[in-house]
Specification:
2 copies of one chain form a homodimer. Chain A is an alpha/beta fold. Chain A has 12 helices and 8 strands.
């Protein structure tokens, strides 16, 4: 199996923390630019309260526009925080939805206004609904490599949550390194027992590059056979409260790593550059990691290097 | 063996491509800041022609100042492009020197004004001298993962060069990914036979993060037992002809990866932040990778995250 599934989450996770509110038409342009670059799996919005996340207030409008503009309905996914969001989403022809459970009580209370047991119950209910409705359900376990409120969590605690969700029938369990506190050893310790118990095809990774370890973690996962990753165009995302803090792992970085490891992503990096430029222009942000800058400059090139003892 | 040797090359490889010429006193301040952060191995200068690299014109003056200011003479190393540079360096109490051989004829002609056989002969001569003089000699094989002029090279060609240099008595063979064209699979393919033939203790890596794969490559090397890495404070380096192009792997990134993998570096990341700030100020550059930005912002922190379906 040499094909990697890259879930492009720029339109959802990338935009949801932005100070800028994008017009639906601009989101549509970005979605089409991403598809043109070969990104076939787009998480496009979140059916969340517009009061909580005004950036996602156009979830219905955007969904209408996307499904009207494209014939590839199976490519779109959306996040749903609860049953109400799930029901809103299914007024559109989504075949895949994502739900979120956070790893701690504090994080769930802040994120979903629920306790951990309540959040887990909510996810289990949605797993049941999705199985009945024939919807593919991805369950994000947020803060799986560290909680923003309570810090590091015991590996056994994370595994218990993941195993409960997988045993209940989650089609895919996505270990989310929400604040980029993960590292290769931790990823290995979490992935190995889950792979053994449930098979690698039911596992995904959602990485943030906050401390620069997203690609080393991705490499560990690739070596273990994992083939499902979230990523965000140009690294769109980050934290609005800390300028310069790195957000989601950049799609182009992940694509470059995967291709260099001999995997197929189906993504055209040159076309992706155009989507990065569009996202940067729409959000007035400086986007794109090293791969994007390298593609822009192609440096060094013959003749451009200074002579004398270069190592 | 859980101790990593990090050769801080900011003062040499980091500064040699900079448009700014630093005063010797400022280089000395930076060296002392790096030492204060626990970086015990500094490559401080290059004994190269000042016409070729004006940034290194103060090699003698800086060496005098450093050895006068510190009692830890064994911590300093310098690069020597040829026998003339080697003899200049040994007027100072250096116990470790580096020499460079590039992987192709084109690259050696540009870099050292020599053919590949001539460059190899030059390195072999210096290996002999160093053994007689009791100097530890590191031999950088530049362009080991791709040549800026001739592109990818056959693995067998790189291994032949490396094996010749190691067999002749190079204390350490440093595979240099000069233009950041390396990747994990390539690193593994190069390192495995060299480790088997000569032992991992005689091997080092000099990585550039031009395409974002420096840390994944470092992780592969760590897993194979390699414990010697070059790195540059804040990622100082890059290519003066392409603003934004990433240079040497940032010391703080490598330190963070190593520590997270359970290795000891002896480096204090908080103190290193001060050295990064000093280097940024002296070179008027925006330095520091994700780890540095994370240390600055500590984001996200409790209360700083927006609510609602965060993954």
């Amino acid at each position: 199996m040499d094909q990697v599934v890259i879930n492009e989450v720029g339109l959802r996770d990338g935009l949801q923390n932005q100070p800028t509110l994008l017009a639906t038409a601009d989101k549509l342009r970005l979605a089409l630019a991403l598809q043109k670059a070969g990104l076939d799996h787009l998480e496009v919005t979140s059916f969340v309260s517009p009061r909580a996340i005004p950036q996602m207030a156009d979830a219905d409008e955007l969904s209408h526009a996307l499904f009207a503009a494209s014939t590839r309905h199976q490519d779109y996914a959306a996040l749903v925080p609860n049953l109400r969001g799930y029901e809103r989403a299914l007024r559109h022809p989504y075949r895949e939805l994502s739900v979120v459970v956070a790893s701690t009580d504090s994080f769930n209370r802040h994120n979903l206004n629920k306790s951990l047991p309540e959040a887990l119950d909510g996810a289990l209910t949605l797993i049941g609904c999705a199985r009945e409705d024939g919807v593919r359900l991805r369950v994000h376990l947020s803060g799986a490599m560290g909680c923003p409120y309570d810090g590091a969590q015991p590996i056994r605690h994370i595994l218990d949550l993941a195993e409960t969700l997988l045993a209940a029938g989650a089609d895919e369990l996505v270990l989310s390194d929400t604040i980029g506190s993960g590292h290769p050893r931790l990823a290995r310790a979490l992935l190995l027992p889950l792979i053994e118990g449930f098979g690698v095809d039911r596992l995904g990774l959602h990485l943030h590059d906050t401390r620069g370890l997203a690609l080393p973690i991705a490499l560990v996962a690739i070596d273990l056979g994992l083939r499902r990753f979230d990523a965000s165009v140009g690294g769109l995302g980050g934290c609005p409260y800390a300028p310069g803090a790195t957000g989601n792992v950049a799609t182009e970085s992940l694509v470059y790593l995967c291709e260099r490891e001999g995997l197929r992503t189906g993504v055209d990096l040159e076309a992706l550059q155009e989507a990065i430029a569009l996202a940067a222009s729409l959000t007035a942000q400086n986007l794109g990691g090293p791969v994007s800058r390298w593609l822009q400059h192609r440096c060094p090139v013959a003749g451009a290097l200074p002579a004398g003892g270069l190592s």
